[in-house]
Amino acid sequence: MSALTIPGTHDSAAYTNAWPFIQTQRMDILGQLNAGIRYLDLRCGLRDDLVEMVHGSAILGLKLSKLLDIMYLWLMSHPSEALVVQVKQDRKSERSTVHFSQAIWCCIAQAPERWRTANTTPVLGELRGKIQLFRRFTGPTLHAYGIDVTQWQDNPTRPFTIYTWHAVQLTIQDHYRPADAEAESLPSLIAKKDGDVVELLDNANANVDPAHWYLNFTSAYEFNLWYQLSPREVAVGGYWAFRWEGGINPRLREYLRTRKGKRRYGIVAMDFPDTGADDLIAILITSNNEQASDLDRTWRRLFVMTIWLALVATVTLTTLKIRQQLGLGSSLI
Question: Residue 300 sits in which domain range?
Fold first, then answer.
């Protein structure tokens, strides 16, 4: 699985609240799956012993159990597909008598056949019809439960690598906000984030180790005294000084368009991936397959045309010879 390009979403459940600094998606979970998303980033909180979907301090009005039911039904109708789901505890538990990790375990235990909670990297064949857990929460007895990404760094300016106890390596780019002392205009923030994303895309494709995971978050925002730039503006683009500034999504689309052939980019977790570049998810998926370059396609067209013209010429000459032998003349008209 780590050798593939996997389209994903950041804060996958943040589609119920339209406030600009909470919403990160336009599609619901089912829509994301149908569109080709195969990595989901689920941020959770525990209230009254129930696991709810959150985005920081915001309650999104969704229960984790409901989202899991949607995934299970979708996998039943798409048994050859595989999902990677990261579960993160994104806020402290409230009015609860159980530990967060226990509540998650109870949710997963409702359909254990749909989960792979091993701490190693699976191959695609063994994950078909199932969900690989990326665990971004701690607990008293979770040493071997899911792939452990609890060493995740918060807003690092450079990519970092997690080395798990079970020989899994994950390199992550998740620089989502300028430092407090910095103030970035929309063009500057998009350009710097684009550089972060492209750097890890190049690194992932250049690494010959197929077992090394790459997680590349294209999301960013800014909220300070000088600028208030929402996740959607960074992802899709916006007007700045009376000029449209394209966001990360169209820039990523252009990057992928100019690089043909089979490539490994790892997990690419996006905000609003269906907006700003309509075929972005599809292009990420096709990077897993061999693709002919524009030059290859041109030569193939020329070859086919040459063969066709040769066939037409052969048929024409043969017809003329037959007509001459029958005394019908050499004109085909």
Answer: 294-333
